[in-house]
Specification:
Layout: H1 6-18, H2 28-46, E1 51-60, E2 65-68, H3 72-77, E3 85-90, E4 95-102, E5 112-117, E6 121-126, H4 131-134, E7 142-149, H5 154-160, H6 174-177, E8 181-183, E9 193-196, H7 207-216, E10 221-224, H8 229-237, H9 244-251, E11 255-257, H10 267-281, E12 287-290, H11 297-308, H12 313-328, H13 336-355, H14 368-378, H15 383-393
Parallel strand pairs: 4-5, 9-12, 10-11, 10-12
Antiparallel strand pairs: 1-2, 1-7, 2-6, 3-4, 3-7, 5-6, 8-9
């Protein structure tokens, strides 16, 4: 038995592609040939790529990210897995290629990614950036996400996969749960500068704890890096608002709403920092600095103030990483690899940008105080204002 001539095989292929297939009376080899051609033809016609198809996008006003209009479970059900590499093509022509899909912000500052956010949302973002603006997106734009390479970034996903609980019972103290602490580095006055999760935004069930701790510490002025007046009014009118001390300070004009996004390299960000510090100069401490988690935007401003007041890199790093210990239980002794990776991805790029240091320099040898002063001068603060701020903060 033969498999037939080339002309016969072409006839069979034409029949298959047209849907006119009758296997009756065909030999075994011919049937195998037909099934093989069917498989190859289906792949050629339809491809094997995983894709969302076209889906809507929206701006995340808090962070400048791009919210994808698709349920996270539906996206994963298509076959996408954490650690995959994906491509995103927006309808305005902006394209992201070969970016990781993670459960958190595990890539270096300034680099794009797709991530699960808060366990429910699918978000395209730039770590410490504003993708919505960078991509030039507007209302009505759409996106399509396709698989670039399965598992390409799985090693990083597995190494840095971290999440935290919003249940108070899972933390050893109110201070740990609220990420509340005093900063006593460098020449800072004792018990003057505090940082915490938000005492007004109860998204993570921490607001009332932060509020109680701020009152116990005698906080007299709050820098709210995350919110504007309209957002604060919304929190205060919500049914779960239970932060009377914050409300009393806000009503007494002792809260400065700065409303920063997360792109610390932008001039708007620096202008917001300068606004906050000018408010601190005019106010008496103790001071509390917060954003939502008290980790990233708060971490940047606290690192700036610590550097400005003579703290070493090691002191700043220890304070920055205390947030990761509070939220995730990560410290150098528990997981040195994660600890060092977080510093390399987050804090070191922050300090490098803040001080204007060379990207390849050893940040621990950089003059952080001079760099912080230059950053503030570049944002319009005068030398007199910087001196007044230092006088407020240092002993």
């Amino acid at each position: 038995m033969t498999s037939g001539s080339g002309e016969d095989r072409q006839d069979m292929k034409d029949c298959i592609l047209s849907g006119r297939v009758n296997l009756k009376g065909l030999g075994r080899v011919s049937v195998i040939l037909i099934l093989t051609v069917m498989l190859l033809s289906a792949c050629a016609l339809h491809g094997t790529k995983i894709s969302t198809g076209v889906t809507g996008v929206r701006e995340d006003g808090d962070f400048g990210n791009v919210l994808i209009d698709m349920e996270l479970d539906d996206f994963n059900a298509l076959g996408f897995k954490y650690g995959d590499s994906v491509d995103i093509r927006f309808s305005n022509g902006y394209t992201l290629e070969d970016i990781p899909y993670y459960t958190g912000y595990y890539n270096p500052a300034g680099e794009p990614l797709l991530l699960e956010f808060l366990g429910t949302d699918l978000v395209a973002a730039i770590n410490y950036g504003t993708l919505w603006d960078e991509a030039g997106l507007s209302e009505g734009d759409t996106a399509e996400i396709t698989l670039h390479e399965a598992g390409k970034y799985l090693n990083i996903q597995e190494a840095l996969n971290i999440a935290y609980s919003d249940e108070r019972s899972e933390y050893e103290s109110d201070e740990v749960f609220a990420n509340f602490r005093c900063i006593n580095t460098g020449k800072l006055k004792k018990d003057l500068l505090y940082r915490s999760a938000s005492p007004c935004d109860n998204k993570h069930n921490r607001a009332s704890y932060s509020d109680d701790l701020a009152e116990e510490a005698g906080v007299r002025m709050i820098v709210d890096l995350a919110d504007c007046d309209e957002e604060i009014a919304g929190f205060m009118s919500a049914g779960d608002f239970d932060s009377p001390y914050f409300a009393s300070l806000y009503e007494g004009n002792a809260v400065i709403p700065v409303d920063l996004q997360v792109d610390y390299k932008s001039e708007d960000y620096r202008a917001g920092i300068v606004k906050a510090l000018r408010g601190m100069i005019k106010s008496e401490g103790p001071y509390l600095i917060h954003c939502i988690e008290g980790k990233d935007r708060t971490g940047y401003l606290c690192a700036l103030l610590e550097g400005l007041t003579g703290a070493s890199y090691d002191e700043i790093a220890a304070d920055y990483m205390e947030s990761y210990k509070n939220y995730y239980g990560i410290d150098r002794s528990s997981d040195e690899e994660k600890y060092d990776t977080i510093l390399s991805n987050n804090l070191i790029p922050m300090l490098t940008f803040m001080t204007g240091a060379d990207a390849n320099s050893d940040i621990s040898s950089v003059d952080l105080e001079s760099g912080a002063e230059a950053y503030l001068t570049g944002g319009g603060m005068t030398s007199e204002e910087i001196s007044a701020l230092k006088e407020k903060l240092t002993h």
